[in-house]
Amino acid sequence: MTDNAQPGRVGYRDIANDLRQQIDSGSLPPGSRIPGENDLMGQYGVEQPTARRALDVLKNEGLIVAKRGSGTFVREFKPIRRVSPDRLQANTSWGAGRPIWSTDVGTRPRTEGVTVDVELPPAAVAEVLKLDESARVVTRRRRYVVDEKPVQLATSYYPEALVAGSPITEINTGEGGAYARLRELGHEPTKFREELRTRMPREAERQALDLAQGTPVILIVRTAFTADDQPVEVNEMVLDSAAYVLEYKFTSED
Hints:
CATH superfamily of the largest domain: Chorismate lyase-like
CATH class of the largest domain: Alpha Beta
Structural class: alpha+beta
Number of domains: 2
Strand content: 25-35%
Distance between the termini: 54 Å
Strand order of the largest sheet: 5-6-7-10-9-8
Radius of gyration: 23 Å
Shape: elongated
Order of helices and strands: HEHHEEEHEHEEHHEHEEE
């Protein structure tokens, strides 16, 4: 219990601070069970609303997660290390017939719910792809699952005029994926730009990624360009932030 907290005068922040300190120090290691509301009531001499609010604080911070019928546990973080720019190197990744994913997790994740549609793009995508107002895009949507846990949603947009009739319009794009097919079409992506931000998930995203309370998402928007700066793809990715470490490598040379 915090030094200034006394029985009968303990607030929910005092309890949350105590539990957080135990988590940070390793006294409550990842995967360990957190005392329930009744335990906290007895330990700190508080009413149920105070105990519940303390746990809610830690849930909203992403430190603990409730498992229905089992209790509340310290979140286990087993990260997928997403290394850029290694994952986009043509000679070791998609250009060699390997999925980009293999750079991250060493094996291909399960891909679920792949859909391919031809539609008008969102205004922001049309602007990036430099499309006329009436131009359509081929849109590929999918969800990625690692160790039976959904970790990412992805939506890719390609100019329809660029990829019509190619395997990019099919569910299975073949070895090396869409980038290998773009190269075969004479539009090899050689330059990439990624924009990142974090936010709380939309409800549909929360359900699709099976996110615990208080878990934000990482939004990555990648644009692929040819050597002559023609944009050929916009890929919007929504990542479970509890599943990823983003690593970027740079040099001081051009």
